[in-house]
């Protein structure tokens, strides 16, 4: 099982693509602490779980998108409070806001403690409209345009 396997710092640095200083800072400030084994003084190593690696990769991706570390902390905390499932969740950011896709129609603003933001899918509206007007080639119900071609 993947959750039981641990990943040492050298492997984490390589897989996630962050520096040792970043990883150390994030662990010391409780952004992402290693859940398998934390460092307890000099000579001990941090060991991260697969879930920890996922969280680190998300943090790195949000940083790369221009989101501040302060906002990332808030977004991660909100995700954990909402108990959003990690797998199957899509995070969306414009560099200022961070959203989690709760469904195709609802985004959760993670910086506003999970406030819902509604999305309208034009493709879905198009498909629903086609079904409603009976887009099967029938002319019934259609009005011819006057004065024209």
Give an overview of the whole structure.
- It is a single chain.
- Helix content is 38%, strand content 14%.
- It is an alpha+beta fold and 149 residues long.
- Strand 5 and strand 6 (115-118) form a beta hairpin.
- 17% of the residues are buried.
- The model has no long low-confidence stretch (mean pLDDT 77).
- Describe the largest sheet: 4 strands, antiparallel
User: How many angstroms separate the termini?
Assistant: 68 Å
**If you compute it from the alpha carbons, what radius of gyration comes out, rounded to the nearest whole angstrom?**
23 Å
In the predicted model, the low-confidence regions spanning at least 5 consecutive residues are none
Q: Percentage of helical residues?
A: 25-40%
Arithmetic mean pLDDT: 77
Number of H- or I-type helical stretches? 5
Order of helices and strands: EHHEHHEEEEH
Overall geometry comes to elongated
Alpha-beta classification: alpha+beta
Number of strands: 6
- Strand order in the sheet with the most strands: 3-4-5-6
Strand content: 5-15%
